[in-house]
Predict the 3D structure of the following.
Amino acid sequence: MLTKAPRGTRDILPSEVEQWQFFEEKVRELCRLFGYAEIRTPVFEHTELFLRSVGEVTDIVAKEMYTFTDRGDRSLTLRPEGTAPVARAFLEHKLYGEAQPLKVYYIGPMFRYDRPQAGRYRQFHQFGVEVFGTKEPSLDAEVITLSLYVFRALGLEEFTLQLNSVGCPHCRDEYRSCLQEELHEKLNRFCPDCAGRFHKNPLRILDCKQESCQELTANVSLLLDKLCGDCAEHFAAVRESLDVLGEPYVVNPRLVRGLDYYSKTAFEIVSPVLGAQSSLGGGGRYDHLLATIGGPDVPGIGFGIGIERVLLARAAAGSSLPESKLTDVFVVTAGNVSAAEALRVVIALRRQGVAADKDYLGRSLKAQLKFADKKQARYVVILGDEEMKRDQAVLRDMQTGGQEDVALTELASMLAGLVKGAKR
Ligand code: AMP
């Protein structure tokens, strides 16, 4: 147990971390272009926040939360999703008093006690955005488009945008009763999960993955056909806006996201390369969330993208990374030159912006050169007794094999120039 991370969690090792950094760089750049500022909220919140916002009958709240009592007897929960914490921060800091819409993004870990499998973890990471302050349908299209641009910036082209409207409390409540009436007779034929959903959250029955449940709901009436005028108009305007942008989508009238707070626009991006856990990300509008948690009636919309899933999809698509090197220059010692002298040269190089390193294991000259090769250093600096006497070092270009003597006083600025030139 001591040498194993808890079930459903993963270490992000140095060999993978460049993928994560690449992801983060790309989304930060896109957010800047789209006008979103970063927000960082705590990883735990009062449990009540998720009960009230995500909803008590959702899978997340009913089965998946990491909830604990702290030493002060407070019930706290590791955040299972990012929207409720950001909404809480929006209220706490009265950000509704600032110019609207307020556009923010976050990157961080989320926690769900789910059954781990490929692409599903108990600690996973999401990049997400939230926008508060307007119901304007072109904003829905902007938010959806941002999510698509994230995938494209990361080299993913194969995905489908699924779109739906889950209505507002007014039309959804009416539809819920109608759905219950239609399904009532078949109740004993549904899977246990759906039987449980029937009274509390019947809409979720529509996106049950069990084939038998899907057959039972094949011909039921759909909320999309029963939206109130306001919701229908909004949905049409969102579609029009996506059409203007030339973004293809598939209307999936059975798409109901697993959280209670959604209203009107709901969307999900699915990848054909991910197998069972095919959802790369999803989101939607939550026009009543803020009021639900005690704030003013401010509408909002957002999405969350699973970073692990995106990286899995990238790997499946064979996407590579732009080459980057941890070490530009490796400094080796020969003869009696001390390790301290080598460190002095390494630090002088680093101060000039050159990524430099040296041996720390007392290796032989041959082994140091081999290690420099393994580190893929472009240049090697050899500090030998003879050269040091003349305040010089040997500079070897590992790519061409050529080498020359360089004055120690000029070494750092010369390598800074060479490394910068090579990166261009
Ligand atoms: P959700 O908040 O459930 O809509 O999730 C948004 C996105 O987060 C999903 O599309 C996945 O990419 C990712 N995600 C959700 N749950 C997990 C999990 N347990 N492990 C890994 N990624 C997840």
The mean pLDDT is 94. The two ends are 48 Å apart (CA to CA). The longest strand covers residues 102-111. The pocket of adenosine monophosphate is lined by residues 81, 112, 114, 119-121, 124, 126, 257-258, 279-282, 304, 306, 308-309 (CB under 6 Å).
